Amino acid sequence: MSNKFVREEINFLKGARGRWNELKYAFGVVFQFMKGFRTLHFVGPCVTVFGSARFGEDHPYYIQAREISAKLAEQGFTIMTGGGPGIMEAANRGAKDVNGASVGCNIVLPHEQKHNPYMDKFVNIDYFFVRKELLRKIFLCICYYARRFRNFG
After folding, report:
1. What are phi and psi of 50, to 5 degrees?
2. Whole-prediction pTM
3. pLDDT tens for residues 45-75?
4. Closest CA to 98 of 122, 120, 126, 121
């Protein structure tokens, strides 16, 4: 059982944890926030782009996200995404196409998401809720490309 995520899930399903373990968990969450804040503190005025990791380069949303992000980056905005493939990659790529600033807040998953190559700076985060808050905290504007109707999670 070397996978950290499997261990955490098994421990969660066991029920309530002792106070010491809860405190360690809380410190881990605070550490994740501090890591994100320190990495993304000086990115400047930021537009956060949310979107599916499943769209390919030929999809109309991918093309549109890339074009809009390029136009926003030309106006001096930093483009921030979840750092993965699909729409996130398109947005970061659009910013890089015009030499704009491009950053990401990537989630660490056991088998899936790796950061895209179009970011100047990125931070890897272990918890979805920390990532979501970092993406929310910094933006001045938000763009959302829906794959289907659902929440932002």
Report:
1. -100, 140
2. 0.83
3. 999 998 888 889 999 999 999 999 999 999 9
4. 120
